[in-house]
Fold this sequence. Notes:
The protein is an alpha/beta fold. It contains 8 helices and 8 strands; from the N terminus they run βαβαβαβαβαβαβαβα. The protein has helices spanning 15-28, 50-70, 85-91, 99-110, 124-134, 159-174, 191-198, 205-219, and strands at residues 4-9, 33-38, 74-77, 96-98, 114-118, 140-145, 179-182, 202-204. α1 (15-28) crosses α8 (205-219) and α4 crosses α8 (205-219). [(4R)-2,5-dioxoimidazolidin-4-yl]acetic acid (5HY) binds next to loops. [(4R)-2,5-dioxoimidazolidin-4-yl]acetic acid is lined by residues 12, 46-48, 79-81, 118-119, 123, 150, 184-186.
Amino acid sequence: MRRHRIQLINPNTSQAMTETMAHTARAIAGSRVEIEAVCPIEGVPSIEGHFDEAVATLGILQHIREGEDRGVDGHIIACFGDPGLLAARELAKGPVLGIAEAAMHVASLVATRFSIVTTLPRTVIIARHLLHRYGFHDHCAAVHAIDLPVLSLEDGSGMAQQKVRDFCLNVKHQDNVGAIILGCGGMADLAAELSDTLEMPVIDGVGAAVSLMESLLNLGVTTSKWGDLDFPRNKGITGPYAACLTRPSP
Ligand code: 5HY
């Protein structure tokens, strides 16, 4: 049986973070899955707000286009803001998952309430908007920020990782929740260790998305092209986004 090919898109340009996420994804993926990890060459080194998400969207859609042309079976947008998710679903035939939506679904299956631990305070609102958009607002007790920039997770000091551990310990004893979601793709390698030490589900969106993607592919479920997620209408778009659309037939 053919292996499923999943493209893991880190929307920021941090190669180190891409490798961190790819390692976690490959550790979780089944034997029938090939993870193709990519990040844009141009764009934003880390995504820490609305402007960064807008800048990153072009690279995401370019990688979706390239992945579709290579024939990948599904795509994961590995940024906790799920930037460009619906636009990416319009471009893709197969499933497209965002790590925030995936993590929230998984957490809701093992706990009645969860909290989220993310990086900067200014991105807390992005997680809150997603909770409302996905219908998980009533499941989430709190969204906490360790108040360190995203790339502090890749500086090798271990300081950000220790703050994540400290926040998760506080969440366990103060938030009255059954699970914790790690609110940054760069935290992907912490979930297994924290689940063990805290003795409660600590869920990272990369692993959640890989597992959910495998389920969708095994079911043969693809992005619906009936309605608003149909391929974009061809209306002569010009500029850098034009190349993201289906290549005109020769
Ligand atoms: C992420 N930013 O997962 C988001 C989340 C965050 O560059 N990768 C990023 O921490 O705001």
